[in-house]
């Protein structure tokens, strides 16, 4: 028999899914999937984060193999995965707005800008997620956060940019040497 708390979690998850389904978009890398990843990410990090940091940590968690924190990339191996990063901030912004609209995250402002934090309703949604992907994503975010959690936002973005330049040089060498 389900408890009232379990039913509330399932209802919140169902509400989020129904919103995605109404949009008739694909599930992969959709605002719905990104919203769920953001909720997991914010729960793992357990401190308010701004959009840029959420975007960067999500990118690193999804492509964990490239950063030597996972055995595989959750979205597969792709030599052009860095191209996704430029668009990811826009996608993540929409996913955050969706989570705010559903009251799954709380907003605050300080010297680091607008910050987002998972709230109790968001944690209830996370509790209803039971998938291998979510477990692997959580592990990736935990590993990424342990490895580079103390980087400033600027250092984090510089780190990603440096890796992109290295990857671009490697691809160029393969093609033209």
Q: What's the structural domain tally?
A: 1
| Rounded radius of gyration (Å) | 17 Å
Mean pLDDT: 81
Instruction: Name the strands of the widest sheet in spatial order.
Output: 1-2
Helix/strand-derived category reads mainly alpha
Fraction in beta strands: 5-15%
Relative helix content: 55-70%
Unreliable stretches, pLDDT < 50, 5 or more residues?
A: none
Distance between the termini: 65 Å
Record field, number of beta strands: 2
Number of helices: 7
* Helix and strand run: HHHHEEHHH
Would you give an account of this structure?
- By secondary structure, this protein is mostly helical.
- The protein has one domain.
- Helix content is 66%, strand content 7%.
- The chain contains seven helices and two strands.
- β1 and β2 form a beta hairpin.
- α1 crosses α5, α2 packs across α4 and α2 crosses α5.
- It is globular.
Give keywords:
7 helices; 177 residues
Task: Briefly say what this structure is.
By secondary structure, this protein is mainly α. The chain has helices at residues 4-23, 31-45, 51-62, 82-101, 120-128, 132-148, 153-176, and strands at residues 105-110, 113-118. It is built from seven helices and two strands.
């Amino acid at each position: 028999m389900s408890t009232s708390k379990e039913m509330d979690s399932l209802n919140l998850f169902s509400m989020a899914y129904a919103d995605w389904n109404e949009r008739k978009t694909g599930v992969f890398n959709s605002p719905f999937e990104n919203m769920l990843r953001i909720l997991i990410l914010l729960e793992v990090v357990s401190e308010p984060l701004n959009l840029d940091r959420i975007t960067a940590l999500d990118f690193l968690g999804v492509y964990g193999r490239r950063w030597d924190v996972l055995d595989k990339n959750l979205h597969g191996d792709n030599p052009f995965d860095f191209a996704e990063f430029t668009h990811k901030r826009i996608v993540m912004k929409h996913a955050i707005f969706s989570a705010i609209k559903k009251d799954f995250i709380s907003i605050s402002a300080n010297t680091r800008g607008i910050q987002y934090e998972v709230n109790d309703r968001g944690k209830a949604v996370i509790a209803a997620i039971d998938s291998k992907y979510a477990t692997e994503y959580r592990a990736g975010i935990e590993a990424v956060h342990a490895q580079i959690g103390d980087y400033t936002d600027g250092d984090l973005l510089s780190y990603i940019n440096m890796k992109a330049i290295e990857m671009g040089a490697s691809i160029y060498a393969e093609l033209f040497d």
